[in-house]
Amino acid sequence: MAKELYKKLKLLREQNQFSQKQLADELGISRPTYMQIEKGEREITISEAKKLASIFSLSLESFLTNNISASREVILESGIKSKKQSDIRIVMPRANVKKFKEILLYVLNKVGAKPNIGETALYKLLYFIDFDFYEKFEEQLTGARYIKNHYGPTPIEFKKIIENMEEKKEIERVKSSYFQYEQKKYLPRREPDLKSLSAQEIKHIDEVLARLSDKNANELSDYSHNDIPWKVHKSGEIISYESVFYRDQEHSVRNYEDEL
DNA sequence: GAGAGTACCTCAGGACCCAG
DNA sequence: CTGGGTCCTGAGGTACTCTC
Fold first, then answer.
1. Pairing between β-strand A152-155 and β-strand A146-149 as defined by DSSP bridges
2. A17 touches strand C (CB under 7 A)
3. Axis crossing angle, helix A94-111 with helix A158-167, rounded to the nearest 10
4. Rounded to an integer, what distance in angstroms lies between the CA atom of residue A34 and that of residue A6?
5. How many whole angstroms separate alpha carbon A155 and alpha carbon A159?
6. In this predicted model, what pLDDT tens digit does every residue of A35-72 receive, in sequence order?
7. Per the UniProt record, which residue ranges are transmembrane (predicted)?
8. Distance (Å, rounded) from C-alpha A141 to C-alpha A29?
9. Which nucleotide's C1' sits nearest to the alpha carbon of A28?
């Protein structure tokens, strides 16, 4: 591994606010072993490079390219300083944040008013939009990172992006009730800018919404909790995009046999 | 040539220390 | 207490040498 690459690895890790332990766990190796990689004392395997690229939302190529400047940018710093919450910084390329926002507005415009689509269901729809896209096209759509929480996959950057969108009056947060539960809902306050999405991406989102947006909370929960990327990770872990390639037939959205 | 013995290398991970 | 850095030991693999 070129010297620049492990420098870059350390830089990426620090920029993304991961500890060595977290990345070592992601790779399934001990922390000292991970450190050897960062110091260039141990070669990195292809599967490890793929995993790291996925964690940092980079293609394998751009991860392996000796370009010191990380392609993720820290943006949307919170205006409220020195609060615990503002410690969670959004680490996503600007273009992807824009895309994430437009996809969110698009989804909310289409299905946000449905009574079953509260915050948790919304998280799950975004998760399937991102992960299904990765399975189909081997490219990241928004590149958002999702963490395994007890009630479902949660996009790490979601909260900060929503706050930013609320400030800009692009979105409105409302509380309603769904059966006996209090439900958090988001209403779009502007139309999505479809220019930032390709026809292929829109078609993909439409397909996911058609397939999943009518499922009730329990059905959606069962469906997502049986998805391999969800199943193979421990609670609190970042769900690796690569794991979509191990999906079972029920969840797979790619016809691998046609490609043989 | 085949099998046994040995040396060397890489890797993993526990244990320890230090700094904040 | 947590995260980062280092040392040390053992396991596993490979290449080389020796003996039959």
1. antiparallel
2. no
3. 80
4. 11
5. 8
6. 777 776 676 776 777 777 777 767 676 776 654 343 44
7. none
8. 28
9. B12
What domains, with CATH codes, occur in chain A?
3-64 (1.10.260.40), 94-254 (no CATH)
More confident residue, A101 or A93: A101
pLDDT grade, residue A12 (50/70/90)? confident
Which chain B positions have some atom within 7 A of a protein CB? Answer: 10-15
Residue A109's pLDDT is 92
pLDDT higher than threshold 70 for residue A1: no
CA to C1' distance (Å), from A36 to C14: 22
- Given this model, what pLDDT does residue A241 score? 83
CB count in 10 Å sphere of residue A217? 19
A250 touches strand B (CB under 7 A): no
| Distance, CA of A219 to CA of A217 (rounded, Å) | 6
Q: Cα separation of A176 and A190, whole Å? A: 21
Chain A span 65-84 residues with beta carbon within 7 Å of strand B: none
Q: Is strand C within 7 Å of residue A32 (CB)? A: yes
Q: Is A8 exposed, middle or buried (0-12, 13-18, 19+ CB in 10 A)?
A: buried
**Distance between the alpha carbon (CA) of A20 and the C1' atom of C2, Å:** 12
What type of residue sits at position A61? E
